[in-house]
Amino acid sequence: MVIWSYQKMVKDDIKGVNMRIAIIGGGAIGLLTAYFLEENYEVTIYVRSTKQLQQLSNKGLCYKRGDKQEWKHINIDLFQNWQAKEEITFVTVKQYHLEAIYKKINACVTENNGFVFLQNGMSHLQEIKKLKTKQVMVGIVEHGAVKVNDYTVEHLGVGAIKLAALYSVNSFLKTLVGDKNPFFAIQEEKDYLAIMQKKLVVNSLVNPLTSILGIKNGALLENPYFYGLITAFMEEIAVILNLSEIEKENYFFYCVDVIKKTANNKSSMLKDIEEKRSTEVDSILGYLVQTANKRNLSAKLTESYYNMVKGKESS
Fold it and tell me: How many domains does the chain have?
């Protein structure tokens, strides 16, 4: 079944305020977020590639889920033209692309701008705290999504986006929370460190091992030898992060649940390795190694897996 919907929605009839949202990053999460938020807000995607700009401008954004396929026209521009004019900006690029964004935020921002950072790992948190604005939320993405090409995103698994404030939250950010769309729920969490740490554990257990072994996520549970690897690694991670027994158990069960829901998916790190792109291993396992060093702890498994991924990344 194919649904064609190229007509632009009139946002003023849907919302009391014609709120503008910027999406920085044209990857899977950026395209997915833009597709759903465009229903209620005036959305602009900012990308680095002129080729992607042209593709999205000419073809529109294509969303796939199962046998559904829908097209939408969405505003598109180059990142170099972003001036933080929108009330809310979602930053969906990978961590190694954040530096240029930090500079532009500090140059353009006012307290009337809200920012949502959706990155894997935790090494970016200290840098975000140095920004001139306090209207910042960080979050985790529980959706499974893949960028098929420059203008198409495939929604492989429906989850939620969970956001938590670093400081105060402005009224614009509050309007995002509680969206009732069953395919794109946005939930507010109280403790940003807890949600980021929980996702860090998932990223640490799943991404490196699937990329090293060259397997889909589900194999980590299906193969008893691979399952032994993630249980042993969980023990080391729990020590590094100083998790209680209850936290360790909850985080591991959460990870198992994520693996089950994404069993047929390839992790983002494995796809990066296959497509010869840089990975986010520095912001994930690199963060754990740094934390272990600060606490004078052994991190033999973490260091070994880190080196393996870096080796594959450079080969």
Answer: 2
